[in-house]
């Protein structure tokens, strides 16, 4: 399979607003996966479980696929999805497989050959944070409100807009009430880059060259790349990496609003180089293993009184 030296770049918004609002960014994953499902195909993607861990699943219906929408800033357990995908491919089924770049590279290595009925989408990411950190954060919030978390939205676009990174938790307290918690603590720790998997600091896919046919991301440079296209309800950055991706985009673009853009106007850090390992990473993990999570939240998550006051004064 031949890949372009540089990808073709598009800004994309799904025409159906409800679809876009249920999606992480502009809804391009829904557009492509709808096409594959309508052709009788199979969609593989990441689902957030009831215990708020992430696993990859196989979907044959839109309801199953809908569970794959949205952000999950935690590692996904792949289980035996590579094996199942290979079975589907050998049986001639159209297959869409989505995941991070390293997961797509792993799938291609496992398969050992190209399949005409396989289409891959990878997610442009900063890196994958520690699952232990996420679980500690959830436990901390549950203890604060004396209850059990029953709902998570890693990026609450509906209430706060696409450009905000606010996680929303619903915690059912022991007296039966539902406490809605809007927080930036986990996001803030994540973007310190101290808690990423060690391999993420050396990721070979932090460039414009990716192992998937199509690469997608939030289009954070949209106001430069396509002024006036942004309505704060989500825009997908879409990179078409080969002829297969160009063909797929031609098939699905009628359900989207799109604009061709320049690659040089679209470059964010994950398209240039891996996140550098912060100098305080070792100290972060020492603190994590020796301090209670409240102190971690204050020191690294912007939860101290000083940090909260600063945010309030700059609103």
Count the helices. How many?
A: 13
What order do the helices and strands follow? EHHEEHEHEHEHEHEEHEHEHEHHH
Structural class: alpha/beta
- Rg: 20 Å
Number of domains: 2
Please indicate the percent range of residues in DSSP E strands (runs of 2 or more): 15-25%
Averaged pLDDT: 94
Q: Whole-Å distance between the termini? A: 50 Å
Give the strand order, joined by hyphens, for the main sheet.
4-3-2-5-6-10-11-1-12
Polypeptide structure, described:
34% of the residues lie in helices and 22% in strands. The chain has two domains: 8-128 and 196-271, no CATH class; 131-194 and 279-313, no CATH class. A nine-stranded mixed β-sheet has the order 4-3-2-5-6-10-11-1-12, with helices on both faces. The protein has a three-stranded antiparallel β-sheet with strand order 7-8-9. The longest helix has 14 residues, at 131-144. The protein is an alpha/beta fold and 315 residues long. It has 13 helices and twelve strands. The N and C termini lie far apart (50 Å). The chain has helices at 17-21, 28-38, 62-66, 81-90, 101-111, 131-144, 157-160, 185-190, 222-225, 243-252, 281-290, 293-300, 305-313; strands at residues 8-14, 42-48, 54-59, 76-77, 95-100, 118-123, 147-153, 167-173, 178-183, 214-218, 236-240, 256-261. Strand 2 (42-48) and strand 3 form a beta hairpin. 38% of the residues are buried.
């Amino acid at each position: 399979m031949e890949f372009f030296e540089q990808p073709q770049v598009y800004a994309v918004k799904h025409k159906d607003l409800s679809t876009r609002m249920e999606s992480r960014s502009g809804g391009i994953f829904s557009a492509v996966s709808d096409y594959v499902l309508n052709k009788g195909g199979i969609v593989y993607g990441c689902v957030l479980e009831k215990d708020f861990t992430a696993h990859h699943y196989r979907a044959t219906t839109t309801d199953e696929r809908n569970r794959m929408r949205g952000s999950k800033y935690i590692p996904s357990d792949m289980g035996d999805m590579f094996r199942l995908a290979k079975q589907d491919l050998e049986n001639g089924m159209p297959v869409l497989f989505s995941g991070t770049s390293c997961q797509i590279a792993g799938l291609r290595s496992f398969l050992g050959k190209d399949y005409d009925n396989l289409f891959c989408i990878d997610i442009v990411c900063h890196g994958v944070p520690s699952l232990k950190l996420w679980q500690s954060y959830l436990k901390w919030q549950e203890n604060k409100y004396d209850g059990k978390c029953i709902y998570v939205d890693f990026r609450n676009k509906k209430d706060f807009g696409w450009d905000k990174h606010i996680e929303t938790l619903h915690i059912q307290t022991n007296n039966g009430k539902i406490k809605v918690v809007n927080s930036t603590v986990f996001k803030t720790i994540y973007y310190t880059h101290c808690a990423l998997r060690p391999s993420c600091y050396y990721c070979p896919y932090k460039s414009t060259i990716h192992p998937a046919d199509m690469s997608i991301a939030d289009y954070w440079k949209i106001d430069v790349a396509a002024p006036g296209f942004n309505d704060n309800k989500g825009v997908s950055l879409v990179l078409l990496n080969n002829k297969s991706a160009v063909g797929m985009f031609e098939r699905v673009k009628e359900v989207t609003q799109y604009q061709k853009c320049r690659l040089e106007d679209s470059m964010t850090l994950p398209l240039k180089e891996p996140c550098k390992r912060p100098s305080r990473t070792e100290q972060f993990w020492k603190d994590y293993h020796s301090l209670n999570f409240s102190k971690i939240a204050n020191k690294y998550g912007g939860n101290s009184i000083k940090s909260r006051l600063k945010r309030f004064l700059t609103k």
